[in-house]
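Service request form, structural biology core

Requester: graduate student, group of Dr. S.
Request type: structure prediction, single chain
Budget code: on file
Notes: please return the result as structure tokens.

Sequence provided:
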Amino acid sequence: MSSESTIGTTDRPLRIVVAGGGTGGHVSPGIAVLEELRSRLAIDPTWIGSKRGYERESADRLGIPFKTIQVGKLRRYPSIQTLIDASRFPVGIMQAWRHLRSLRPDVLFATGGYVSTPVVIAAARLGTPSITHEQTAHIGLATRINARYVDLVALSYERSRAALGTAKASVVVTGNPVRDVVFGGRGQAALDQFGFSADIPLVYVTGGALGSRAINAAVSDALPELLPSVQVLHQCGPRSSHNDIDALNARANQLTPELRRRYDVVERVGAEIGDIFAAATLVIGRAGAGTIAELAATGLPSILIPLPGAEEQRQNALYLADTGASILLSQPDLTPARLASLVTDLVASPERIALMRSAASHAAAEDPAARLVDELLRLINLSAIEASVTSTPFPDV
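Core staff response, request fulfilled:
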């Protein structure tokens, strides 16, 4: 066995850099891949991201060293802010180059978003093997640029392959990995935590990490029509972004005591998400890549409301809607009456809910985290290395 074969053993942990972030959809795949890698061999991970991005908070919770670079949002249209951000881009490349030169990683895993592109370009200049992963059905600008520099592009959907055209990198379809914490939940634990009954359908509402003010407003006004039929757990987003949680609690306190017991609202959800998914009958939310992957992985029916103007969310929602796993509801059609009607009709039909569950499960990719890690190890010629687990699992986030 060559000297390189000591990578991943106690003598030589695999040095991996994850680059990407901005949203939870770009963070969850990085976490899932690190969890899968850590279950197989010893690793020495570092995350490179933006100073204020969601990725920094996640890396800190996981205890992963974090390096920052300057970033500017990639846009397809001209604006003054585009010019300002363009000036940050070469600075970010230089900062990423310095980080990578110091870290000397064996491989770079880019999870997308504009923060990943400077790191991908720096890795190409240093000759570091690299993979970029696209979570959405719609190929984003960052992935289109990354594809010019990486060794491998991993896609979540076969339908996305044609959009890459003649990319120089190899292309594989792996699916979109989700965090371990999503699986194996105990539904009763969630019911006990939030004071709900096992005899009434539970609807989980989420607008993503920051919440959705449009969804929050519609749910607030729909509560009197919803709660006679269902219980609602509502993740509305943090006070640091808006004060919807106070308005939602005030609205709920106007309900009768019986209906008030059927509603709870929280700013964010953490490690209990697996329990919530196990208890839920239906999910209402945006159509971010992470949400789509988690709904498919857990076989949950949904009503999806894509963010207006976000083509990637529309394509994501169409993917599940086309299979019969979800109902796509455009935001202009999101009225309290329409939302309440859809929910009450669905929960009144156990047969339809069962069909949607089956369709969601069939839409899930088979073990995408393992497939991505297989590709990553193959890229650096480590596919035959035996597992040498010397570290503890990452904490649930």
